[in-house]
Amino acid sequence: MSFAIETRGLTKTYASALGPIHAVQDVTIAIPRGELFGLFGPNGAGKSTLIRMLATLLAPTAGEARVNGFDIARQADEVRASIGLVFSNEHSFYGRLTGRKNLNFFAALQNIPRRDIRRRVDELLGMFDLLSPAGRMFHTYSTGMRQKLNMARALLHNPSILFLDEPTKGMDLPTAEAVRKLLKEEIVGRQGKTVFLTTHDLYDMEQLCDRVAVIAQGQIQEFGDLRELLASPASERAYQVELAEAVAGLAARLEKLENVKEVKAEGTRLEIVSNNGARMDQVLWNEIIANGGQIRSYGPRDDGLRALVRRVSRGDNTE
Ligand code: ADP
User: Fold this and answer.
1) 236-302 in CATH: which number?
2) Cα-atom radius of gyration of the chain, to the nearest Å?
3) pLDDT at 236
4) SS3 content of the chain, % helix, strand, coil (to 5)
5) How far is the CA of 217 from the centre of ligand 1 (A)?
């Protein structure tokens, strides 16, 4: 099988006055063609360092990677020709040129034949719903419009792989939704491109991605098919409660509550699983107190993809 992106032991260590910074450590992943891949991680986790290496903007300290079948170290030109790259809030558009003229300019820079430019630019403006503001100067564009124009620019040369750093960041809800739909249905679904995006939005990840990886402190914590990772029993919402003293019959009473699927009691410790991921902290809390229970500690059971994401977002992945 040929993969769109394949890495083996990819590593980047920065030197700093305080010692080495292990920005990306020993990352080994493989992403099939035509998939929407999401890299989730908090700030400083190593997401942009990883993208920059794959995009040949940064040389790895160790390890290797192939992008579209090309080696990032030895075939950098071929890699660059086959990818589009969008960093959020980073653009070099001209504020006093229209959206269309900006795209025309970058198309010419990329050696797209003159006779093809108009058609290609029109096609992309249409795809991103930017035809009506195409004649307005770029500096009048909203954040969402700027981001969309950025994506359109990255697609000018029709790359087979698109790297997007936080694609929906700063967008209003309808624009974010439109961009998700476009990525999923058009760019990946119809055109068969591979999209590699980073996000720290769990919703983005769940709505969009076929395959995901969670990264923290430069290391991949979990990697795999999103549906499989979410389908594990851990994707049910589960709570762990520690009581001061065991309360006879409490488990049976909690089990009768609506949306409670299962209660396991072991001495002072209760584990409560709710149906369909229902959130019911307050209901449980009330019932326990009403039955004379004294709660020592209380919290979600920490396992599964969502829990991992929560933990990683708090900057705590030591468990
Ligand atoms: P993310 O994109 O997930 O926010 P980054 O890849 O930007 O994470 O950063 C990963 C780590 O590497 C952070 O600790 C960051 O401070 C550090 N880092 C990033 N770029 C450099 C650099 N040019 N020099 C030194 N340290 C860097």
Assistant:
1) 3.30.70.100
2) 24
3) 60
4) 40, 30, 35
5) 10
Residue nearest to atom 17 of ligand 1 (CA): 23
Crossing angle of the two packed helices 143-154 and 114-127, in degrees rounded to 10: 140
CATH number, domain 3-231:
3.40.50.300
**Is pLDDT above 70 for 303?**
no
CB 163 within 8 A of CB 267: no
Q: How far is CA 123 from CA 61, 138, 191, 305, in A?
A: 40, 18, 13, 38
Domain boundaries, the chain: 3-231, 236-302
Residues 112, 8: Cα–Cα separation, whole Å: 34
CB contact at 8 A, 89 and 48: no
294's tokens: 């004294």
Mutate to test the pocket of ligand 1, among 11, 13, 14 (most ligand atoms within 8 A of CB): 14
Q: Does residue 315 surpass a pLDDT of 70?
A: no
Q: Report the residue count for the chain.
A: 319
CA of 127 to the centre of ligand 1 (A): 33
User: What is the 22 CA–ligand 1 centroid distance (Å)?
Assistant: 9
Cα angle for residues 4, 147, 226 (degrees, 5° grid):
40
| Residue 109 scores a pLDDT above 80 | yes
Which atom of ligand 1 has the smallest separation from the CA of 42? 3
pLDDT reading at 318 higher than 60: no
* Mean pLDDT for all residues in the chain: 89
Distance between Cα 218 and ligand 1 center (Å): 9
* Dihedral sign, Cα of residue 97, residue 100, residue 103, residue 109: negative
**Residue 319: pLDDT over 50:** no
> Which residue's CA is minimally distant from atom 18 of ligand 1?
23
Within 185-313, residue ranges assigned H as helices are 202-208, 226-231, 250-255, 281-290, 304-313
Decide whether any atom of ligand 1 lies within 6 Å of the 34 Cβ.
Answer: no
The finding on whether 18 has its CB within 6 A of some atom of ligand 1 is: no
